[in-house]
Amino acid sequence: MESIEFISTGIKGADEVIETLYPGDNIIWQVDSFEAYSFVVKQFVRQAAADKRRLVYLHFGCHAPLVDEDALNTANADFKVHTLDATMGFESFTSRVYQIISAEDKETFFVFDCLSELQESWCSDLMTGNFFQVTCPYLQEREDVTYFALYRNAHTQDTIARIREVTQLLLNLYYIDSQYYLHPLKVWHRYSPVMFLPHLLTPDGSECITDSGSSADLFSRLQIHTKKLDYWDVRFEEAKPYLNAPLQEQAYVKENLLNLLIGKRSRIASLSRDFFTLEDLIQIGSREIGTGYIGGKSVGMLLARKILETKNPDFYQEHMERHDSYYIGSDVFYTYIVQNGGWRLRMQQKTGDGYFTAAEELRKILLTGHFPTTIKEQIMVMLEYYGQSPIIVRSSSLLEDNFGNAFAGKYDSFFCPNQGTPEERYDAFLEAVRKVYASTMSREALEYRLNRGLADKDEQMALLVQRVSGDYHGKYFFPHCAGVGNSSNLFVWDKNTDPSKGMLRLVFGMGTRAVDRVNSDYPRIVALDKPERPPLLAYGDERKFSQHYVDVINLEENEFQTIPIEAVKELPLKTNVRLFMEPDFELARYFRETGHRSRKVPDIVSFTRLLRHTDFPKSLENVLAVLSHTYDYPVDIEFTCNFDKQEHYRISLLQCRPLQTKGLGRKIEFPKDVDKNECYFSSKGNFMGGNVRLPVHYFIFVKIKPYLALTEPQKYAIANQIGTLNHILKGKHAVLAGPGRWGTTTPALGVPVRFTDLCNMNAICEISYEKLGLMPELSYGSHFFQDIVESNIFYIALFQSERDVTFNEEKLLGQKNILEELLSGSTEEEIYPDVIHVADVREENIEIYSDIVTQRLICT
């Protein structure tokens, strides 16, 4: 049997009771005071110095250091002191500790300040337990010996249980009548008949207290609390008595709760400070599962509602649907990673080498993990509250929906139809949570963070759980309409449009079809200064450019579905269907003219009555104006709207975030006497990005006919090759042009690139080939658009059937194709010079000119 090295605590009596320390031991001292912990640390440090041990002290508490550096220097001890700031947050703090430990040789002695000190910075038992659960096993693996402490009665039973599970020694130290008593609770791999009884520590050793009278006398003098609140809950309970206090007295308490729920330093936090009351914050805390921040999406939704309630109370009372959302705190995300053994991977994923590779392994863990019992119990209570109402689990990360970083569509959200037995509904909800957590490690999210300089930032994932807005319509559940609203409208299709009035991207049914680019379907684009005027009619008939499918929740089949509009029309909609649909008058006229009067005329989702004969568009205009004025920044909202039989409506505001947008820019002087036949392209309207004058050094063009002749795998290979060119031509003024829609998930409608495959382009151009079924979609308001704007990419749609549109394909193809020259050595895959044409036009001094007011666009 391999011999064990015995290590002294520096206290003779303690060594007798626990049979000394072993390599790899983590020792938790439960104490009543700083002085008690200081006593055992001083003996341990003195002994370590005498034994020529390497000693490292990590100081983060709000007290004088436990370790006397001067004494250690005098003794020529081998030691290092690190002063850390716990307010940097759990992940940054824990990562720094991991780095400090890793930099030392194995079998080092470590001393930590009392872990209870972390509560002042993190306000959460959950995170204190997480820190120990990730740090203790690593120290044990290295055979280090480490001292920690906890203040007795300062932590929940769950936290103590989690710490007890992984530590090697859990020791109670009592100081009574100027004497120290040691009572071991856990001693790993050691045992004696009296080890787990209390012992009086004496100068000569220890005395075990075995008789019942002395034991009862000792323990009766201790304050033992069998049930302790989480430090987080204590802070909220302490705030409640201030609800009726003067505002001045509430200020400090309110600030504490703001810091717990929202954070300290951000523009959104400043706005929250202005509008949220102490009562609001206590209410939010009462609906939080776990602890930690509620995240950007939750804050944006709550703040926007509060702004409207404060600034327009009459409208809010009459037309705003209330919400009863829950929030799963950001601490739960870290706890989930820790308890499922993913923290080492999390640390690897934070490194350059492991950023993508470790993420894939971590994603698998996130998809299959289990949840802490206390969190599962809180989730069950929430699900009992919602009953069988459909709910949605939405990402609400710390960086999401803030100024500068929208993260639009980067993290997933999942509808839970919420039908079936309580057990089935519970399992489905947890699966939805797992999937949202796993989306933090998706390739698209990681690339977005990398491209935005956020790879090193703590990105905790809180969750927003919302009751789905809508009603039962037969076996389906959905709202009457939903959409995206932008307070600034740069998608203007004639010079008379006022961009400052904003715009909507409006759909019938669930709003998913408004926030995403949907193949073969078009939402209604509404310019709020003239909401009744339909856009894009010149590009085809009204039916073609309208909504053909609706997203719903099928309650009988317990799933989210997409169904044809025709299947919805006959449902009991509980309001006037003509608010949303009207007959296809153009087709009806065609039937009359061709002698087919008896044929049934289908409806078109046009929203004509809603936009012409109700004040709904004016209300949305006012909502956007109030929010953007308060934010002092353009905003982007997501909303639903439901109507009753009298056509009275209620709007549910689901999301609000600062809208990344380009201003109009200064007026651009166009070149004079330009022959359109000599231009590469020109257009009237159908561009996004304001007034620009952009140099063009490279054109990347995907040719339509050879592209359509490819197999589907080959079309995806084309998308990958575009991504390679995107990397090669970064910062080199490249314009990407191709058929149909960039970023489609259906290769027959365009090139299925990911956004990261074109994120370095100066401009992208979508070109129509109507006879071949490939058409652009001006997707202002969608996640795709948000990506374009954030990356400062100019967008152009060229509808070749339009009178004012020119695309000189022959001129472009007349340039030498340098594709193979660029890709030489960059890829082992097949190169497609017959499909992708790359032209170097640096010597031609080509530029793109645009003007919003005149809607003029030219590239020459």
Descriptive overview:
The protein has 860 residues and is α+β, with helices and mostly antiparallel strands. The strands form 7 sheets. Strands 3-2-4-5-1-6-7-8-9 form a 9-stranded mixed sheet. It has a 6-stranded mixed sheet with strand order 27-32-31-30-29-34, covered by helices on one side. The protein has 4 domains: 12-220, P-loop containing nucleotide triphosphate hydrolases (Rossmann fold), CATH 3.40.50; 287-467, ATP-grasp fold, A domain (Dna Ligase, domain 1); 477-658, 2-Layer Sandwich (D-amino Acid Aminotransferase, Chain A, domain 1); 676-859, no CATH class. The protein is elongated and about 110 Å long. Residues 536-540 have low confidence and may be disordered.
List the helices and strands and how they pair.
Layout: H1 12-18, E1 26-31, H2 34-50, E2 55-59, H3 69-74, E3 79-83, H4 90-103, E4 109-112, H5 119-122, H6 125-141, E5 145-151, H7 157-166, E6 169-176, E7 179-187, E8 199-202, E9 205-208, H8 212-220, H9 231-239, H10 247-261, H11 267-275, H12 278-286, E10 288-289, H13 296-311, H14 313-319, E11 326-328, H15 330-339, H16 343-349, H17 357-368, H18 373-386, E12 391-397, E13 413-416, H19 422-438, H20 443-451, E14 461-467, E15 471-473, E16 476-478, E17 481-486, E18 503-508, H21 512-515, E19 524-527, E20 549-554, E21 559-564, H22 566-569, E22 581-583, H23 585-593, E23 603-605, H24 608-613, H25 616-631, E24 635-643, E25 649-658, E26 681-684, E27 687-688, E28 692-696, E29 698-702, H26 704-708, H27 712-728, E30 734-739, E31 763-767, H28 783-790, E32 794-798, E33 806-807, H29 809-813, H30 819-823, E34 836-840, E35 846-851, E36 856-859
Parallel strand pairs: 1-5, 1-6, 2-3, 2-4, 4-5, 10-11, 29-30, 30-31, 31-32
Antiparallel strand pairs: 6-7, 7-8, 8-9, 11-14, 12-13, 12-14, 15-16, 16-20, 17-18, 17-24, 18-19, 20-21, 22-23, 24-25, 26-33, 26-36, 27-32, 28-35, 29-34, 35-36
Helix pairs in contact: 4-6, 6-7, 6-15, 9-10, 10-12, 11-13, 13-14, 13-25, 16-17, 17-19
